[in-house]
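HOLO CASE FILE
Compound: magnesium ion
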Amino acid sequence: MSALGVFVAGTDTGIGKTWASCALLHALRDAGLDAVGMKPVASGSEATPQGLRNADALALQAASAPPQPDYAALNPVALAEPVSPHLAARAAGVEITLAPLRAAYASLGAGRDAVVVEGVGGWLAPLSDTLPASALPTGLGLPVILVVGLRLGCLNHAQLSARAILADGCALLGWIGNAIDPTMARLDDNLDTLCRLLPAPCLGVLDYAPDGDPATQAPALARAVAALRARGARSR
Ligand SMILES: Nc1ncnc2c1ncn2[C@@H]1O[C@H](COP(=O)(O)OP(=O)(O)OP(=O)(O)O)[C@@H](O)[C@H]1O
Ligand SMILES: [Mg+2]
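Model generated. Tokens follow.
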């Protein structure tokens, strides 16, 4: 049986995709599922004696249970430069294509209950001159959870992202609000507005938690786990 997969998209870069993905991995683990994280493509990676290592992928690796010791299995494309993946790939002489990422996803998910795949940047961030980041969920056939970084402008960014996800033919399971800005005015009113405007349910809201442990946020994602389980039951 293939693993239950989900693609974690975001309204932008730096809005909490990694934070939410790690919290979701903990929530899945708390629900008794073997869940592994994946960052198929990462730019901004550090050179180490073991090779290039990206902070997002390391965080996903740490939140995976049982552990996934093979780093390259969860981050097949690690690029050094902290810029758009298509530019980092060009600088590294790498052409990002879908087939090897599909194979890596299939082998990572073998024997697992769930795979949480973190996207890169926003929905249309370029991976190459011809491949947008949205090719990952469409190419892997994954439903999407949209992380909305709760800050001024998010009502627009969230609606645009949701429209693009649906226009690309993906299933939008729901959205997670992530309180990245502790100074955001009218947080509750903005959450109410997102509930009204977005065409999919709210699957949880994550608190502002600087230097926090994503495991503490797992209980807030019970609805996300239930949505994934329901999706798995439907596709069986
Ligand atoms: N709920 C939160 N409370 C406090 N800090 C947060 C929260 N969510 C995210 N952050 C911080 O905001 C920064 C960006 O978060 P994160 O790395 O998860 O974003 P991202 O969308 O995955 O970014 P990228 O596009 O680089 O992958 C990080 O420093 C993270 O620790
Ligand atoms: Mg990230």
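CASE NOTES: Residues 10, 13-19, 56, 121, 178-180, 206, 208-210 surround adenosine-5'-triphosphate (ligand 1) (CB under 6 Å). The first strand starts at residue 4 and ends at 10.
CLOSED: yes
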